Amino acid sequence: MPVPFPTAATVNLQPPDADEVELLSRGVVSAMAPPTGITGLQRALVDAIVYEMTGYPVPRDLEPINPQEYAAGLARREESFRTRMVQMMLLGALVLRPLPPVVADQVQAFACELGVDERMLDVAREFAAGTLGLAALDFDRNGYTAEWLPEHQDALHTTTPLAEAWEQSCHDPELAARWCALERLPEGTLGRRVADFYRARGFIYPGLPGSAPPLLAQHDWVHVLADYGTKVESELEVFAFIARANDDPRAFSLLAMVVSLFETGYLRKGAGLFESSPGQLSHQGVADRVADAMRRGARCDGSTDFLAIDWFELADLPLEEARRRFGLVEKSEHARAAGSVGPWEPGGISEFQWRIGEEQARREDRPYEPYGASIS
C-alpha cells in the first residue's frame, strides 16, 4: 500500500539533514543494486549526486532497507521529492548492462510504495527483457516528447509543421537565414557565441540539408550558456543540466536517453541525430561532472525547460547577462578538476568536429578559427 502524500500542514520542504541523507542513500542503493552487489559506477554516481545535491557525503557502509520502511521514512516528503528519488534509483539501474530483471522489479517496488508513477520504469523493464526496440519507442511515448503539439515548435521558428519532435527540417530557408543572422551580432553576445560555436565545429544551421533537428539544436544554446564542450562526455553534462532544471518529471527521460546512448548502448540512435557511443559515463570523473551539472540545473531560477525557450529573443544579450537571467551558478572546482571543460577550452572539441570545421572554412575561403578550443 503506497504511503500517502503529506498535507500542506505536514509536508517537509526543508533540505535533507545528514540523517535523512543516509536514509535516502540506503533506499537508492537498495533499489539499484544487482544481486552481485552495487557496481563501482553505481556507487560513484550515488556518492557524487548525493553530495552535490545535499552537501553531505554518503556513508560508506549502508544497511539495506525495504520499500515499506523507506516509504515510511519519506512520509512527509511531497510527490516531486519522492519522484526525484525514484529517478535516481532508475539512473543507477540504467547504467547496468545487462540490467537484471530483479533490479527493474526492485525499483518498481520502491516506486509503488512511494506512490510514484514514473513512466521510464517501462523502459527499464524492456531493457531488462532485451526488447530494445520497444524501449526506444517508449522514450517517445512516455518521456519528454510524449505530448508533442504543433504549438511546441513555435520557439523553434520552423516555417513548416514538424510531425515529430525530433524531425529534421532541412529545407527551410527562413529558418536557416535566422540562424545565419547570428553571425552579424556583436561579439560576446549569446547569439554570436552560438554562431562561433557552429562555425568552429562545422555544424550546419537548422533549415539546411545535413542539419540537426531544430529541437535538438536547442541544446546547442545550452552548451554555450552553461559552458560545456562538445565531446560525448559533455553531452551527458548538458542533458543532466537540462533534465534537472525542469520540474516536469518527464524531463528525466532526456538524461535516461543519453545514458542509454553513451554508457550502455541500449539505444542505437536518439534525438534524431545522436548515435550510440557506449562507456562514456564510466570514464574517470564523468560521474562527478554529471552530478555537478545536475546541481547547476537545480540551482537555476525556478523551473526552466531549456529546450522550449525562444533563444532568438535572447540572442542579442551579452552572454554573462543571459547567464544571470537564468540564475546560472558556476561549475564546482571539483567538476573542473574532473575534466569539465567549456566549448572554448582545450578538450572542448572533438577531433572529428575540428576536422569538419576546418573543411567548412576552406569551402567558405576563410581562415579556420576554433576560438580557443583544441582537441586535448
Q: What this model shows, in words?
A:
This protein is mostly helical and 376 residues long. It has two domains: 18-130, no CATH class; 150-363, no CATH class. Helices cover 49% and strands 1% of the residues. The protein is built from 16 helices and two strands. The chain has helices at residues 18-32, 40-54, 67-73, 79-94, 101-114, 120-129, 132-142, 173-180, 190-201, 214-226, 232-245, 252-262, 286-299, 319-325, 333-337, 351-363, and strands at 269-270, 274-275. Strands 1-2 form a two-stranded antiparallel sheet. A hairpin with a 3-residue loop joins strand 1 and strand 2 (274-275). Helix 1 crosses helix 5 and helix 4 (79-94) runs parallel beside helix 6 (120-129). The longest helix is centred in the first third of the chain and has 16 residues, at 79-94.
